[in-house]
Hints:
alpha/beta; UDP-galactose 4-epimerase, domain 1; three-stranded mixed β-sheet; 10 helices; 14 strands; 17% strand; globular
Amino acid sequence: MKVIVTGGAGYIGSHTVQELLRQGDEGRVLDNLSTGHRQAVPAEILREVDLRQGPAVLECFREFRPEAVIHFAAHCYVGESVRNPRKYFEDNLATALTVLGAMVDTGCPNFIFSSTCATYGDPRQAPMAEDHPQDPVNPYGETKLFIERILRRYDAAYGLKSVPLRYFNAAGADPSGRLGESHDPETHLIPLLARAVMDPAYTLTVFGNDYPTPDGTCIRDYIHVLDLASAHVLALEFLRRERRSDAFNLGTGSGFSVLEMIHRLEAIAGREVKWRPGPRREGDPPVLVAAAEKARTHLGWQCRHSSIESVLETAWRWHQAPLY
Length: 324
């Protein structure tokens, strides 16, 4: 299958591109490299494009004629979205609408959407299944939910089939060491844990130690990036086979608190994680854990790499010798 991957030079995108190519699909990456890494994808398939520019995006679609799109391109920091909602509403919606417009104009029928558990907001039950009410508590989640609603309209009007994948906390790295997690600025917990071990001048801030959880810190469901990548490929197969839209959670069903993650990385690294308590971040729910039985049943998806030991060990290995 010929697949365009937007934001494919980013963390989850690059791992997914690697899996697509391994499966024998033909890929093209569209990325403006504002947060992605040129070194993370083969140079011959990368096109440096601003996805807000409709004519440039349409030209790429007309040249490549994809059968499907996997859309990762978006700003994705919860705290930043609260401080600067304009950036999120303008850019996340504009890029999605430009890509969807090019799909409609060129007859590309299949769309896999990088959505998020942030569309659910504060959990009313745990674990959270796909029928959980969607009531986001931050602008990042609101942009993703609005795009999900757009997708339903595009299905009804144009027959464009889509699979939003609502994933929980992406983590880990390619065990080969070729790909990993690298953001600037870095806000994700596991890379910051590694930095708190390796950088004598850095101390991790734990945002909130007064949540209604056993140790007072946030609990999250950590899913290995390789398992996320395989889910996107399986979602393409689902659309090709079923020809209908649907949404799926991606998570393990198990949650770990920030303090638990600190202690587990200390055991793996054999060194102390330096940390201090700080205030809660706006928009952070206390617990986010997935119910992912639907993905296992309908996509045939399995978590092969997502034990917390594998997540932390592969991440720790990458951060000791990152390639970009």
